[in-house]
Amino acid sequence: MRRKIVHVGAGQLTYEIRQIVGVARQIEGFGRDIKWENIGDPVEKGVAIEPWMKEIITELTSDDLSYRYADSQGVPETRQFLADLANSRKGAGVNADDIIFFNGLGDAVAKIFGFLKREARIIGPSPAYSTHSSAEAAHSGYEHLTYTLDPNNNWLPDLEDLRNKVKYNDSIAGILLINPDNPTGIVYSRELLQEIVDIAARHDLFIIADETYCNVVFPGVEFTYINEVIGKVPAISMKSVSKEYPWPGARCGWIEVYNRDRDEEFDTYILSLINAKRLEVCSTTLPQLSIPPIMGDARYPEHIAKQSAELASRAAEAFSYMKDVDGVSVIMPQGALYFTVLFEEGVLNENQHLKIAEDDIREYIEKITSGMPLDKRFVYYLLGAEGICVVPLTGFCSELKGFRFTLLEIDAEKRSQIYRAIAARVKEFLGSD
Questions:
Q1: Inter-axis angle of helices 374-386 and 359-368, to 10 degrees?
Q2: Residues 45, 407: contact at Cβ < 8 Å?
Q3: Terminal C-alpha separation, the chain
Q4: Which residue range or ranges hold the Aminotransferase class I/classII large domain (predicted)?
Q5: Is residue 360 classed as helix, strand or coil in its secondary structure?
Q6: What are the Cα distances from residue 37, in Å, to 298, 388, 419?
Q7: What is the mean pLDDT of residues 89-100?
Q8: Domain 10-47+301-430 belongs to what architecture?
Q9: I need a surface site. Which of 5, 19, 65, 396 has the fewest CB within 10 A?
Q10: 68-295: what fold?
Q11: Is 176 helix (H, G, I), strand (E, B) or coil?
Q12: Strands 121-126 and 172-178
């Protein structure tokens, strides 16, 4: 073309969680049954929606008003409900105008990073959730800036690393945190969150807190919302119905904006997000209408508690299979939907492989794994040998080698077979050199 039309950050738009699906489909075409452990879709894995939730949603679909446009920022009554919910916690408050709905949090992430000045960078955790890291990198045109989550300290942030990077890189305008974390499942303590807030306050930054899994916290683990410790620091909290109801296909996420009035630049930035939503007219109406009657229902806390207990039990089961495997280390998650396995340094090499009986699958895997990251090599061999689709840790903007799988399989026998097969194949792979 006579003009270059590709955005400078286009090459940064990678999402390993979905990209591996293409390889899995190829292997599926060879006749291998695929066990999808790559993405956190509870419904796809057989989780049944509570009948009482379905009744509420069915009743809403009978109301003609559920088919209308919503206000650009979202349904006013729902925004007020969520503001009241946030204000029920001690900490920074919001009003309905501080709640902005999006077509899922993927849409929110794209706009939050896309409407920043290109030179303004957001530093986030590594390993990183790919949607955030790719969007931030694409917006800037450079690799995503990260601080370290330390596997030798229960995957908690290395605060000294964060302090130094913020101190010596004045392009950093904000700090991203994911709590509970994806992919590690770690939940941040109140004290740790307060230290991150203090760093932001000291350097005049804002905070983005992805709290997607705030209601997927395992029994006995205390969760602290960002608005409980944020003080006067400007902040954005991100939430959705995807993992809670669960209703990922609703594409219904929202942000809660705190201390918008304390910084003129931040306030103008938030206004740009609202104006962007106005150009789209509205986001999904029906799911928004469902939030007050479902989240306000007396049965909702019991639903959340039951869901979290089931996931905690599955995490313990996965841990029991992986904890004694030589060459890897595992840390029990405290929330979210995932389990992360870390290969110990130096145990992987380019000669390792898994036995694959089918010639066509083996030849395909041997061809595509040449020169790729070593943990990704294991992931593809696991896919070829067992049909188990997991995600390499290097796909989460990390130099660490490992992989992540979900805790969503509801069939106990099938789940046990998957976890047992993963453990066995790790042992085979590491011993194949």
A1: 170
A2: no
A3: 49
A4: 50-407
A5: helix
A6: 33, 7, 11
A7: 95
A8: Alpha-Beta Complex (3.90)
A9: 5
A10: Aspartate Aminotransferase; domain 2 (3.40.640)
A11: strand
A12: parallel
Q: Are 145 and 121 in contact (CB under 8 A)?
A: yes
**What integer pLDDT is reported at residue 130 of this predicted model?**
87
Residue 5 — very low, low, confident or very high, per pLDDT cuts 50/70/90? very low
Give me the helices (H) in 30-129, please.
Answer: 51-61, 76-87, 105-114
Does the model's pTM come out above 0.70? yes
pLDDT in tens, 204-254: 999 999 999 999 999 999 999 999 999 999 999 999 999 999 999 999 999
Q: What's the pLDDT at 10?
A: 47
**277 - beta bridge partners?**
none
Beta-bridge partner residues of 240? 253
**Strand extents, DSSP E, 65-104:** 99-102
Which of 271, 277, 197, 199 shows the shortest CA–CA distance to 235?
197
Domain 10-47+301-430 identical in fold to domain 68-295: no
Token pair recorded at residue 156:
């908690």
Question: If residue 125 lies in a helix (H) or strand (E), which one and from where to where?
Answer: strand 121-126
What span, in angstroms and rounded, lies between the C-alpha atoms of 91 and 145?
Answer: 29
Using CA atoms, how far apart are residues 412 and 298, in angstroms rounded to an integer? 29
Task: Collapse the DSSP code of 120 into the 3-class scheme (helix H, G, I; strand E, B; otherwise coil) and give the result.
Answer: coil
Tokens of 128: 């990183």
- Does residue 12 register a pLDDT over 50? no
Domain ranges within the chain, ordered by starting residue: 10-47+301-430, 68-295
Nearest CA to 240 among 207, 276, 216? 216
Residue 416 CB contacts under 8 Å (≥ 6 apart), including other chains: 317
